[in-house]
């Protein structure tokens, strides 16, 4: 006779499937909770080892939650932690009887002789707690998923927030002795000097790479300019250059569609007037050059996502998935102000929302250990200001958090856009036609630099100038972070050096 399998689900009168797994006892380790609580009360050393890992909610048994909270309070007051002080604190808190009384405290201390294995036992308790949190979070998501009018994007945000909260439960120690950190950094410096490894992802502007150090892992790079300056074109150039070097790159376009961005890329690579893709059409020669560009571009690891109204949580999910699936090592986002914050945070406050976005982008860079470039609009203050109209850090739009979170702030300035036909050099007033200026106004880990580059408007293409008229380096004269009020219209004399970048 065939053995019947136990039924795990049944159909309710309303037709909803109900899982009997909900009736299971949640994951727990009561015996280890007793051992850990007992060890904390007999050995001060045990407290210093695990207090940063624990909070009262981690314990499954309520009496253990009360006792741990009393231990934490006594320890933070600087008093000795023992049976007497814990008993007194529980009495002050009004939870002595709820904790099992003094007799139960004595029993807990008798279960262990030392705190030798307290960290190991603590991590098992944490694992059980994380399992319980995952079950609870999953159940909440399941219940919301059954709601007929649920917004799926809000649901994804909620799911991400729930899982992110769970992932932050276990706080991993980050401290390290200076002796263990020095040798790898010295070795890395020697390799950079010998050019065995590069300090960051190269840019197509050679002097910019050499003086700024390129785009480094874990860094948030803000590329900012007024509309019409060409920040999308320059960002595409940076992304394509990285992909051509074999670095998997993702470009998130919140403003332009995949098709528009593809036309822009073909125009840049094949040197075809951008308007031909929308107004005049391609002749035979244009089509031939386009297909040659296609043969090259389809071999490089370059990915485009044109999701509109992308939230920071959605971006973080997508970034992690693309890093896992395609090995992405460089992210570019166009542009920050078109992104939305969390659906549950900072509603109605745009400044807080932008702060949430910039910190979320920085978190992506640090979590995935990649450079994260985000484009940003500048305020209209640039337009109303007299003089050269070079952008300042104070022009970053909507939130000071952008400047604070950014490791690198990169501006573009094209005088020609403002009908300025000569550069404002003191000794060399060259024409501004088809030229632009890149400005690194903040660089936590490299030099500050201002220099010119070529701009071909018909191809929306930035490149190195064949002849450099001016080169300005800030690293020797100014701090790494230029004050918001600093105007860099006055050139600073360069001193030649032998630095590798």
């Amino acid at each position: 006779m065939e053995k019947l399998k136990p039924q795990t689900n049944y159909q309710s009168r309303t037709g909803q499937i109900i899982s009997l797994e909900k009736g299971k006892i949640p994951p727990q380790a009561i015996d280890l909770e007793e051992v850990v609580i007992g060890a904390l009360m007999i050995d001060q050393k045990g407290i210093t080892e695990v207090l940063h890992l624990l909070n009262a909610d981690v314990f499954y048994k309520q009496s253990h939650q009360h006792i741990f909270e009393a231990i934490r309070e006594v320890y933070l007051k600087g008093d000795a932690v023992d049976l007497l002080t814990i008993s007194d604190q529980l009495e002050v808190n009004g939870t002595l009887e709820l904790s099992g009384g003094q007799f139960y405290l004595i029993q807990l201390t008798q279960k262990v002789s030392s705190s030798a294995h307290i960290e190991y036992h603590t991590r098992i308790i944490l694992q059980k707690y994380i399992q319980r949190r995952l079950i609870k979070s999953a159940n909440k998501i399941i219940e919301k998923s059954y709601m007929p009018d649920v917004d799926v994007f809000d649901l994804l945000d909620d799911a991400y927030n729930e899982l992110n909260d769970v992932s932050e439960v276990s706080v991993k120690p980050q401290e390290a002795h200076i002796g263990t950190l020095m040798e790898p950094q010295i070795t890395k410096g020697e390799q950079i000097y010998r050019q065995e490894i590069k300090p960051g992802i190269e840019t197509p502007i050679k002097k910019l790479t050499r003086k700024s150090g390129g785009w480094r892992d874990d860094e948030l790079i803000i590329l900012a300019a007024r509309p019409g300056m060409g920040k999308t074109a320059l960002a595409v150039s940076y992304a394509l250059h990285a992909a051509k070097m074999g670095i998997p790159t993702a470009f998130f376009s919140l403003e332009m569609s995949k098709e528009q961005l593809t036309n822009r890329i073909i125009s840049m690579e094949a040197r075809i007037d951008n308007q031909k893709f929308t107004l005049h059409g391609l002749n035979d020669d244009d089509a031939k050059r386009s297909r040659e560009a296609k043969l090259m571009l389809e071999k490089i690891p370059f990915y485009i996502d044109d999701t509109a109204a992308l939230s920071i949580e959605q971006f973080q999910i997508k970034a992690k998935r693309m890093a896992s699936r395609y090995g992405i090592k460089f992210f570019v986002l166009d542009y920050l102000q078109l992104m939305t914050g969390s659906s549950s945070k900072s509603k109605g406050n745009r400044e807080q929302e932008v702060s949430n976005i910039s910190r979320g982008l920085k978190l992506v860079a640090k979590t995935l250990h990649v450079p994260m470039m985000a484009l940003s609009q500048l305020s209209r203050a640039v337009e109303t200001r007299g003089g050269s109209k070079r952008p300042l850090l104070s022009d970053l739009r909507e939130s000071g958090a952008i400047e604070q979170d950014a490791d690198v702030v990169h501006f573009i300035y094209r005088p020609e856009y403002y009908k300025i036909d000569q550069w404002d050099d003191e000794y060399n007033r060259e024409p501004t036609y088809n030229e632009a200026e890149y400005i690194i106004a903040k660089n936590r880990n490299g030099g500050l630099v201002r220099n010119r580059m070529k701009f071909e408007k018909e191809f929306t293409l930035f490149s190195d100038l064949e002849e450099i008229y001016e080169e300005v380096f800030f690293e020797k004269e100014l701090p790494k972070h230029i004050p918001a009020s600093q105007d860099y219209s006055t050139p600073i004399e360069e001193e030649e050096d032998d630095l590798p970048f």
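Confidence is low (pLDDT under 50) at residues 1-20, 467-501. The longest helix spans residues 118-145.
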